[in-house]
Specification:
Keywords: Methyltransferase, RNA-binding, S-adenosyl-L-methionine, Transferase. The protein is an alpha/beta fold. The chain is built from 15 helices and 14 strands. It binds S-adenosylmethionine.
Amino acid sequence: MEYAAKVPLPDAFVQFLEANGLDPSIYTAIDSIPRYIRLKPGCEACLEEVEADLKCKLEKLEWLPLFYSLPPQIQIAGSRAYREGKIYGIDASSGAAVLALNISPGDHVLDLCAAPGAKLCMILDLLGGSGSVTGVDVARHRLAACRTMLQKYALGDRCRLFVADGTTFSIIPGRFHSDRKSCESGLEETGDVFKEWTSRRPWKERKMAKKNGTAQLVSKSHPPELIYYGPHSGVVGLTKRELYMILSDDEIANHGYDKVLVDAECTHDGSVKHIQKFEQWGWGTLQDRVLDADRTDNLYALQLNLLTNGFSLLKVGGSLVYSTCSLTVAQNEDVVEQFLKENETAELMEIDAAKNWPCKGGCFPKTWRFDSLTSQTSGLFVAKFTKVVI
Ligand SMILES: C[S@@+](CC[C@H](N)C(=O)[O-])C[C@H]1O[C@@H](n2cnc3c(N)ncnc32)[C@H](O)[C@@H]1O
């Protein structure tokens, strides 16, 4: 095979790339692309200390605030700065997807495929002391890791986490209830209300976990399971009925989320780190986990459903970012095209920050693609939508 000499990838993966119209040469740089870290806001003065700790020079990224690149061989997980929560390990392309959301103070944000939480933490850091973030993921163990990350970085105050299927999730931001309560103050509350979250799970919850056994992925029909909420996430003081209340489309137009991130499940073929893992796991497993044709067909439907449901919870004038770490047209531009056909209130938006990004335009106007050769980052596709009134 022509690429075999310069691309350290198995034939099956090269064939997958070719079948999807992707040039395998984008992977020639995977051994030399830098690693990236994001500094915790407020730790800017610790830069020299972090450099000494990691024993390398950090290069500031001009196009992405608080991001730095470092040589690929540097391991950050054992460093003091990482243990003490002064830095995050997150690829620059992931940072770009969050930047595209244009988070503003007071925003109520939904992150529909949130685990393990690198982007969720960045959203919370950008929000600061106002608004809220709702993180959803179908994988209980991955979302539990996300909760640990919130605790490590002391970011849980304004966040709530639900184990739920993002294609059917329908819980609205807490803002709706606080607005309503301030208009209806004096009304007497009935039923049990959520008190401050505690890591000691109540008897009922423990019984449910036992019933669910070791199942780590919830089904579509499984009701959303709240596994964490911060004191200012809008949950404390609500009744269960209020939390799970469903609104009409008209109500969501006004009271839905300001920003939605759909960082969808995908084949991860653009993710350099993911592909490199197969070198240790054995290239044989790549076939089952990434390239299997049935799986990729199902993924297209899942991505479209996640995008459609995320959009249904967005308020009018809000913005939604759709991203995947696949570079195939089927999981990106095709999903975008189909979604626009099916949703007349959806409009693609320009991503203002993208003019400074080291990436290429997608095959669909206003969409963007990072790949390791062009961008010196992991691969990522990004598109941004808004909801209009028609
Ligand atoms: C690309 S990862 C998300 C990465 C995450 N946004 C971050 O920055 O750390 C995709 C996630 O989607 C989750 N997922 C897959 N199917 C889902 C579904 N139906 N509903 C919600 N989450 C889903 C997976 O468990 C996985 O954690």
